[in-house]
Amino acid sequence: MRTLYTTTVTATGGRNGHVRSENGILDLEVRMPKSLGGANDNYSNPEMLFAAGYSACFDSALSRVIKLANVQTGETTVTASVSIGQIENGGFALAVQLHANIPNVSLEVAKSLVDKAHQVCPYSNATRGNIAVVLTVSNNN
């Protein structure tokens, strides 16, 4: 891989701690969500941060695929739902549902564009074979 960009974030205190990027732009308290034993859902958590990164990255990959295909669409949106659960060996795993809305195209075209974006997106490439990822599409204006 030819590196194009690197960033660094440091976590202190794990799921009940703090994360801070090297440039200070990301500077958040993180806490365990209520469903995992936390007091409430008033803080960010690792799954939320992963969902934010994956949805933003996938929407960029989708935009690139749309541009290269010379397809006219409205503004796209990508929503990522990230789940955490326990697996058979007692460890934990993630699962992702990505929903892309691509206005002004048929559902068939939208599905094709999303499938292509899934091959381009760095998050998709990093997680392929390791995390269950379900893709859905819509074409609402």
TrEMBL record:
InterPro entries: KH_dom-like_a/b (IPR015946), OHR (IPR019953), OsmC/Ohr_fam (IPR003718), OsmC/Ohrsf (IPR036102)
GO biological process, one term: response to oxidative stress
Pfam families (UniProt xref): OsmC
Coiled-coil ranges from the UniProt annotation: none
PANTHER family: ORGANIC HYDROPEROXIDE RESISTANCE PROTEIN-LIKE
Similarity-based family: Belongs to the OsmC/Ohr family.
Name assigned to this protein: Organic hydroperoxide resistance protein
Organism annotation: Sphingobacterium paucimobilis HER1398
